[in-house]
Structure formats: C-alpha cells, structure tokens
Amino acid sequence: MNENASTVAPRRQLDTTQPVSDAPLREARFNLARDVILPARTRLQLDECLARLRFHKKIYQDWGFAAVDPMGMTAILNFYGPPGTGKTLCAEALAGQLGLPFMALGIAELESKFMGDTAKNIQAAFEQARQTGALLFFDEADTLLGKRLSSVTQGVDNEVNAMRSTLLIELERFEGIVVFATNFAKNYDEAFRSRIGYHVEFTLPDLAARKQLWNRFLVEQIPLGDSRESLLESASKLSENLSGREIRTCMRLALPKAFLAAEQIGCAPQLNAEHLHAAIEEVLNAHRHVATPNSSSRVHSEQDAARAKALLGIQ
Fold first, then answer.
1. pLDDT recorded at residue 148
2. What pLDDT digit, counting tens, does each position of 252-268 carry?
3. Of 247, 180, 202, whose CA–CA distance to 38 is shortest?
4. Cβ-Cβ contacts under 8 Å for 49 (sequence gap 6 or more)
5. Which residues have C-beta within 8 Å of that of residue 63, sequence separation ≥ 6?
6. Cα–Cα distance between 42 and 47 in angstroms, integer?
7. What DSSP element (H or E) covers 236?
8. Same CATH fold assignment for domains 2-203 and 207-289
9. What is the CA radius of gyration of the chain?
10. What's the per-residue H, E or C state across 150-218?
11. pLDDT at residue 152 greater than cutoff 90
C-alpha cells in the first residue's frame, strides 16, 4: 500500500549501486496481507502497529504531536518469540505492506575485527536507511540491545558499551521504521526496552493458524490419496506445538514418503494421511530427543558479553 508509505517517510528512489554501508538492501518480497499466517492475537497486534504507521504523519506532523514526543518520529517495533514463528518474514512483509525497501542486519553485517568499526557500521546502516527510506531490521537483537557492561575491565568491554551507546543515539535521531527481532527479549537493556513503541509477541500457531499453514503448504498440484479436508483436520490437530517453520519441514519429509510408497507397490505417487502423520511424528520425536532446551534468561545474560565480543570480532 504505497499510500501508507507516504505517511511514514518520503519514498526515495531505491539505489543499490552505491550503498552507504554493506547492509543488504532490497525490495520487499512479501506482503502482510498476502503472505503471512499468524495466530489471531499476533495478527491483531500487527494490525494496531499498522494503524499507527498509517496515521503517523497526521499525528506527529499535521497535529504537531512531535513537539512533545520527539522520539515518536521513529517507529520502533520489537518482534519476540520462539524460533520459526515468522518474525523475520513479518518484518519484510511489513516493509512490503508499506511499500518500503527492506534492509536486514545481523551479526555478519555489523561485525568488525577492528576496534570501533562495529559502531561505525551501525551509523552507516542508519544513514543508508535515511537515504533510501528503508525499513531497518535487526535480527538477533538481544546481542545488540543487551544490558551494558557495568564492570569494564578491558578495551573490548568499552567497545561493547560504545556500540550500544551508538545504537541509542541513532535511534533517537532516526525518523523511520526500525524492527528488532529476538528469541530472548528479557535480556534487553531497559534503555532500549523503554524506547520501543510496540512489543509484538510471536507465539506458536494456534489450531486455526496451523490449518491455514497446512493449507498453504499442501499446494494444489500435489496428488492426494485422502480428502483434502481430512488431511488438513488431522495434520492440524497432530502438529500442536510445532512452529510454522517446522510444519513446512513436515511437508518436506512427507513428500518423499509418497514416492517411496508408490515405488514399493508400483502405482502413481499420492500423498496421504499416513505420510503426513509419520512426518509429524519425526519432527515431534526430534523435539523430544534432539532439540536442546532453551537457555534460561540467567544463563543467556552470562553469555551476553561473550556474544558481544564475538560480534566485534575480537577474541
């Protein structure tokens, strides 16, 4: 919706030939209305975010609210929740819904082996977003937004604090949209948490969302050995506690099973309930025997300094 983009920031011509930084800048490939399936509560939170973005210019410029809320010129969103629940997809789809370019940043784009360069890379990324009008997305944001180190014992500790101070300054100066995503939102420093306008929780899909996901992944060209509705009903119920990413993995596992079964009995391959149920059980079994439990907030906090040092590329 290009009309929405004009309420957020003036749209500039997307030019990737001379980037200000090495951050990947691209046209958004997804759209919230077309490409995203979410639980009802998460969808409602996103719709409320969109409403604010739609009327952002009216509230802050035309109505003059920026005079008493200067930080409000920046729309800062935090997407948090378990892996595989659609945080990165939604960030890009939000850019697509607003008609904005999308700039995704992670550790690989920001890290530097030279003291001070990570902070400079953050500055360059914000400058590029200003010039292009891009939505700026930070993945694994708990590494960047973690609590600042109070016991500074060596130069790298100063660098970690400088990096986070730089990010705070850039957020205060920026007039655009920034989205953070994390699996560990509790590790955010309060200075960052209080500046975020919307905290959107991404949960595992509910029954209705699971049915929509299975319907999406069960593409029309796949020949079915059972009725489509019965497959959707049974798979949706059996896949409780699986993320959207894991449901897609189930389909990847189920489709070869249909071909192997057809070869054994000498007939044309068809996907049936037995293949789907076996695939779901494999993924659930991996939950029980392979997956590592999430680290507690306390343990993750203890690892924060080490992760930040890795971000800076310093041993």
1. 61
2. 999 999 999 999 999 99
3. 202
4. 75, 77, 94, 198, 200
5. none
6. 9
7. helix 228-238
8. no
9. 22
10. CCCCCHHHHHHHHHHHHHHHHHHHCCCEEEEEECCHHHECHHHHCCCCEEEECCCCCHHHHHHHHHHHC
11. no
DSSP assignment of 24-59 equals -EEE----HHHH----HHHHHHHHHHHHHHHTHHII
Architecture of domain 207-289: Orthogonal Bundle (1.10)
Q: What is the CATH number of domain 2-203?
A: 3.40.50.300
Element (H, E) at 61: none
Angle at alpha carbon of residue 116, lines to 112 and 120, rounded to 5°:
80
User: How confident is the model over 214-244, as pLDDT tens digits?
Assistant: 999 999 999 999 999 999 999 999 999 999 9
User: What pTM value is reported for the model?
Assistant: 0.79
Nearest residue to 225 (alpha-carbon basis) of 264, 278, 281, 276: 276
Q: How far apart are CA 5 and CA 241, in angstroms?
A: 36
